[in-house]
Amino acid sequence: MMSIPYADNLKASKFAVQSYAALVLARQQKAPLGALREIWEHRADAASGLPLLQLGVALKTMGDATRGEEAIALALKTPRNSDERIWLGDYGSSLRDNALMLSLLEENKLLPDEQYTLLNTLSQQAFGERWLSTQESNALFLAARTIQDLPGKWQAQTSFSAEQLTGEKAQNSNLNSDQLVTLQVSNSGDQPLWLRMDASGYPQSAPLPANNVLQIERHILGTDGKSKSLDSLRSGDLVLVWLQVKASNSVPDALVVDLLPAGLELENQNLANGSASLEQSGGEVQNLLNQMQQASIKHIEFRDDRFVAAVAVDEYQPVTLVYLARAVTPGTYQVPQPMVESMYVPQWRATGAAEDLLIVRP
């Protein structure tokens, strides 16, 4: 009995589930060959090469080398559907699938030439993405773990050292800003050389607002629902923070994070004996609360340093979120920008506009 709650392509999702189950059972020599061949008859349902490869390995493991090799060859020719709006129910992506395919090929010592081609494709995909989902990060880890101990001597000449670098495994080097500016690396050997550079630092100014599919805006209000400035608060004052989230595509797994500046403290609305309540606010605030109640909010947290909410954002249907914060510590503080991202398509994200300084007086 198979239950797939929701997917835009049920046949593809069913084929993927059955192929993965076939691989798991085949590893224990408990996959009936007849059942594997029956799944193979539905190969046209595949929407990605990964389930075809899993089925191919299962077929070879259970003794049907002919169909297994056909499935593996077909897997390498079947790209994942690139339309991210088509939900397959597996939280996957082309990068995730290619990483798992590379890991599976090396694990079973299959097609070394195709592995190199797949590794080259995967490298370009990984470095082309700034944000990775948990599925993608896990798949890349599995692929790296599988291939990290493969033999292969390499040589490289760098601008920060007169001596030639050589080795059989990865090497790390820490560079300062001056070395980074003039960095040059050349492959002085006859083996492929893979280079990764990570830079860390603090920006001198707040990043500009940005949005991709998602959009977020923050408004600071008084408890009467009118706009309020953050540069004239006194210790003990309450402010209402109104977040509005929009999306140009449906995003069922949006994560909203609004970091608090050091001078503010959240009023936890989950506490029955809280010192302040949104329900006691004015009419304009009640309108916002009504809009918030209509949103598909899956989870809300009032943390020490941030407000967090998991929500489903429908296409062109704004989501309203509101919370109370109290000015507590006198001083002048930078105000972090609000952000929202899809938890499983992390490049769908947005950051809001930067606020003026928060000034809290005694």
TrEMBL record:
Q: Which GO terms describe its molecular function?
A: endopeptidase inhibitor activity
Top-level lineage group? Bacteria
Put simply, this protein is called Putative protease inhibitor
Task: Cite the InterPro entries for this sequence.
Answer: A2MG_CUB, Bact_MG10, Terpenoid_cyclase/PrenylTrfase, YfhM-like
Bacterial alpha-2-macroglobulin MG10 domain residues are: 214-346
Annotated A2MG CUB domain residues: 152-213
Instruction: Give one Pfam hit by family name.
Output: bMG10
